[in-house]
């Protein structure tokens, strides 16, 4: 399942919105199997109580990674329909990587699996997202 | 299932972290059935492409609302274990309300249902969260 | 959101397949808000170890109830896309009721919430299902 | 993550309940990474309308496969807490294989990923299950 879009075509869309710029996310890698997004360390995203990254930030970038995995194969808007996140363990402070793989490209709904890992390579959260891929 | 904590006890925890202050969330209402959190309008959270609020922001505040529904009954940290979000329809720009109801208070895991509504009262997303409520 | 189909129209579809006949499910009630399906007690569905009903049977009838909630409003096949089940507590041996409510009727995907209760009225499991409702 | 239990120890538990005997499921393979369960073809499980296997049967065996993946590593009852199924495509009539991999072994909750494939090797459904693994 080759990506339809190249890095050069995906990057401006990924970093084009102010909210994504605020997050600081960058396209780390794209290949035939998956797409990886980097979330640089930002102290704001960590809870003061325990130094762990906020679950909402993980959910946000998991959503984005899944979206772009599907988008890179279809080159059309693929609004998230349903998103499930499982939080595995607290992550170390530092950059995080989000790797998304397309599980199904469907005429109605497409599915992507997303894994979030911290700098030590430990999986800290996994997600599964359904994205609307209706051909207009 | 009465809340264990009062508004006065919950508010400082809800607004105590820099990330929650950044979001601008406020405790709107708490009663025996549910807790409601308000997310004031912030242009940053809307995508430039279509003027719709970013799904990650919805996921983030859905997570927070569910967390505080369970927290208000147990008065202990209740880390999110699993979160499912279904996006129902785009919302209008404006303040959003997130109402969370506890479905189950368990010795291992507790469950909350969360509904996000826009200013017109339309449901724009629903969530179901599992929170670790193991008594130490 | 009124049901399109009457009890007389739904019942033959619900009990028309051999698998549904094997389960013994019956249409208990249908009204403008919801549809309720009864699963009569069957010793086979209970695990010998602990006398609790098998989670797979709960998942099966939760799926069916959600399907028929959406089907009754659209009168077209609505294959299940995604199903989430949360098991709340073990149920008492006896008939079970599964009440399904449509949360969203969409042009691509529709959503139903399902609650399974035992004879004592206790909720034993909840489900949320996404059903393909693409108009052909 | 080596399995704690051998094939000889798992098989009698898997096939010990009347409901599992009714399904006809058998332990196909167990290795350090995963456990695979076979569901032999049974006409009863297929819907008369379209010849497709009933989604409830898929959910049932996905649940069982995930349960036994976690059980084989912990050797204690691990009741299902939460189960999510995504239906990918209709399967061909025939035996089905369900392969479950443990994603996380936790002190409170463990997670397994399950893939259901038909005889042609096509993935027809995927599941993610949370199982209670509280040490008593």
Automatic annotation (TrEMBL), chains A, B, C, D:
The keyword Coiled coil does not apply. Signal peptide: none annotated. It catalyses: a fatty acyl-CoA + H2O = a fatty acid + CoA + H(+); a medium-chain fatty acyl-CoA + H2O = a medium-chain fatty acid + CoA + H(+); a long-chain fatty acyl-CoA + H2O = a long-chain fatty acid + CoA + H(+). Residues 51-123 form the Thioesterase domain. The keyword Phosphoprotein does not apply. It holds the Pfam family 4HBT. Its EC number is 3.1.2.20. GO terms for molecular function: hydrolase activity. It is an enzyme of class 3 (hydrolase). Keywords: Hydrolase. Gene3D superfamilies: Hotdog Thioesterase. Belongs to the YigI thioesterase family. This is Medium/long-chain acyl-CoA thioesterase YigI. The lineage of its organism: Bacteria, Bacillati, Bacillota, Bacilli, Bacillales.
